[in-house]
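During the no-cost extension, the postdoctoral fellow (Dr. R.K.) reprocessed legacy sequence entries with the updated structure-token encoder. One reprocessed record is reproduced below for audit purposes.
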Amino acid sequence: MRLDDITGVRLRSVAYLTLPELAEERYVRYPVGHDVSMGIELGTEGGGRLTISWLTEGTDARVDVSWGGIEERFPSGSLTRLDATAWPEWADLLGRGVEHVQSVEGLKPLEAGRTQAGVRLGFTDGRSVTVALGEVTEEGRLEYSPDNLVVLFDRTIAQAYEHSLAEEPDA
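Re-encoded structure tokens follow.
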């Protein structure tokens, strides 16, 4: 799927797809952003479902964006849907259209090159949401993780994290 295919879509609902033992708001919502173990399903006007999840192919980890649900990748019952539609971070974006979508590039963790480490959705009201590979640590910091996602609503936090994904590690 091309990221441009998302332009114009209006948001209707938001669900986080997570492991059953982490399916509580207290394990997901942090001041820095949301920590989502498996994926995000954005319901759209017209009944479509846009899924953003992590995907590992060989040594490459990347963010995958696709139409439809995530169920086909995971056995039935292995994931729990945590409805985040009414959470303040998402509630104000309901009914808003996606004005632009941008890939967030990052370094491949185990080999040379770049990968799609995230996506940034820009909405018609000027706000944006970044979904990227990563996790929130126990100390509340963002850290790269190839098999987890973070959802970032604060533009300054998102830009700093996006920059860290693209940096060469210190030798």
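The mean pLDDT is 86. The radius of gyration is 15 Å. The remaining legacy entries will be reprocessed before the final report is submitted.
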